[in-house]
Amino acid sequence: MALFRKVGRAALLVHPSGPMPDDDWARIQSQIAALGTPSDEDRMVVWADGSLNANQRRNAKERNTTGREMKVLMFTNSVVTRGVMQALAWMGMAIKAWPKADVDKVLGAEGFSAADVAAVKGAIADMEAELGVSARAA
């Protein structure tokens, strides 16, 4: 299962483990679409150790190369996933990935205030709790 919430400038997606179920993917895509056109300051923050299936990856690439996409900041402890995200960036997606431990540094570099970073991290903790995930370093 995965959850999505808007937290200030961050469109936050938490996907803890395993393949994302198609019904979660469809629900989250609808929630993202309901946000409307993102501003230049908005960021999609993905906190994930899960994965997408081939159709979901293709859909994400199509949605993320239209010219008005939100820049995606992914945080994952998976070296393989970070490598895949780098490959997608080479193919034109506005995405970068870092280890979860770098969340403060990366969000700060993206112009998030200390209060905004704290709000995002608090929302991550709340969403992980809702998903039944034990607390991780954030």
Annotate the secondary structure layout.
Elements (H helix, E strand, L loop, with lengths): L2 E5 L2 E10 L2 H13 L8 E9 L2 H10 L7 E5 L3 H12 L4 E4 L4 H7 L4 H18 L7
Parallel strand pairs: 2-3, 3-4, 4-5
Antiparallel strand pairs: 1-2
Account of the protein in words:
Helix content is 43%, strand content 24%. With 138 residues, it is α/β, with parallel strands linked by helices. The protein has a five-stranded mixed beta sheet, with helices on both faces. The two termini are 20 Å apart. The mean pLDDT is 86.
The order of strands across the largest sheet is 1-2-3-4-5
Which residue ranges are poorly predicted, with pLDDT under 50 across at least 5 consecutive positions?
A: none
* String of helices and strands: EEHEHEHEHH
Strand content: 15-25%
- Radius of gyration in whole Å, from Cα? 14 Å
Shape summary: globular
Helix content: 40-55%
**Could you tell me how far the N terminus lies from the C terminus, measured between alpha carbons in angstroms?**
20 Å
What is the mean predicted local confidence, pLDDT?
Answer: 86
In DSSP terms (H or I, runs of 4 or more residues), the helix count works out at 5
| Total DSSP E strands | 5
Main sheet makeup? 5 strands, mixed
- Kindly report the oligomeric state of this protein: single chain
> Which structural class do the helices and strands define?
alpha/beta
